[in-house]
Amino acid sequence: MFFYNKKNIDNQYSNLHFVNWNIVFLLMFTCCTFQVFGQTEPSDLIIDSLKNKSEQVIKDSVVVAEEAVKEDSKEEEKEEEKPVEQVPGEVRENLNDALDKATKIISPAKILTIIIASLFVWLTTKGTNWMYRSLADSFNRHRLRILRLQPITNVILWIITIYVLVMTLFNPTPETLWALMGSSALALGFAAQDIVKNIFGGLLIIFDRPFQVGDRIDINGNYGEVVRIGIRNTDINTLDDSIVTIPNSKIISEHISNANSGALDCMVVVDLWLPIGIDVERVRKIAFEAAITSRYLNIDKAVTVLFFDHFDNHPATNVKIKAYVLDARYEKGFAGDVTEAAKKALSEAGIYEAVRQM
After folding, report:
1. Are the beta carbons of 253 and 286 closer than 8 angstroms?
2. What is the mean pLDDT of residues 38-44?
3. Residue 19: per-residue pLDDT
4. N or C: which end of the chain has fewer CB atoms below 10 A?
5. With helix as H, strand as E and coil as C, how does the chain read?
């Protein structure tokens, strides 16, 4: 606008310059005319009228230029004042729009829907867990296969519920969904590092399967059967019937000993300590018979009896009886049966007395 007004002023001054030159030429033409007709100089009346006209033209041009300058200054002041007057209004409108959007996104109805859906899924997971345990007790031969479906089902239920709630209640665009996932991952990474580690550890355990529900594992001296693989923790039922809860982040960073690795049966090793001067053949026969007479033995697999001599403090012979049980849960029952039957047979055979006499 400034340059436009400046251009108008320049045009006014150029017009003024052009008028002045026309007046000069008109005076010269008048003088020449009077000389031609015999007069030496023009009349005072004509000269005065020409001067008045030139002065009037100059005044008009000056007034036009001053008005253009005033309009230019007024428009500049308006342009400077306009942002100052409109900024608070724009901020207020933006704030109202943000509040309206937040109210639409987070409303009491949506919060109530999320609570009801979460409660429903929690009850559903409890029901599925009870169903899997009942099926495992009813179909003992397929117990481990049934129990392995339990954690996978729970994870799938929660994933489907979260997806349905987000897509139904919020209906985000793909760009918003990706942005939300990125910001959520960043926030969770800083605010809940341990929880996120445990969750990722649980997913790794479920899909990588270093052990499964029903396996007998040993983690940091905690030996027992895996009864639950959760999102954050894993529960182990030890041999003294205690439940040990271990965070999944600790499990994936530790060495794990797995006794059955997904199989229903499990090898059990029974140790017998006898004096070093025993009759090996008689003891082997007694140990073998003690193992095969147990009701927990898996007769489809071989029974092994091994002898090892130790001379640390007192000379002794370690007899190891290795056999498989029908179910890993019968580990301690089998070990107790074999130890009891072997000790009775050894006493009846006079093995202990024969060694004392030696």
Report:
1. no
2. 47
3. 47
4. C
5. CHHHHHHHHHHHHHHHHHHHHHHHHHHHHHHHHHHHCCCCCCCHHHHHHHHHHHHHHHHHHHHHHHHHHHHHHHHHHHHHHHHHHHHHHHHHHHHHHHHHHHHHHCCHHHHHHHHHHHHHHHHHHHHHHHHHHHHHHHCHHHHHHHHHHHHHHHHHHHHHHHHHHHHHHHCCCHHHHHHHHHHHHHHHHHHCHHHHHHHHHHHHHHHHCCCCCCCEEEECCEEEEEEEECCCEEEEEECCCCEEEEEHHHHCCCCCEECCCCCCCEEEEEEEEECCCCCHHHHHHHHHHHHHCCCCECCCCCCEEEEEEECCCCCEEEEEEEEEECCHHHHHHHHHHHHHHHHHHHHHCCHHHHHHHC
Distance CA 155, CA 30 (A): 109
Amino acid in position 133: R
CATH of region 266-357, choose from 3.40.50.720, 3.30.70.1730, 3.30.70.100, 3.40.50.300: 3.30.70.100
One-letter amino acid at 224 equals G
For the entire predicted model, the pTM comes to 0.49
Checking if the pLDDT of 2 tops 60, the result is no
- At 174-218, the pLDDT tens digits run 777 777 777 777 766 666 677 777 778 888 888 888 888 888 899
Token reading at 68: 């253009």
d(CA 65, CA 11): 9
Tell me the β-bridge partners of 317.
Answer: 274, 309
Residue 334's pLDDT is: 93
* Joined tokens for residue 80: 């400077």
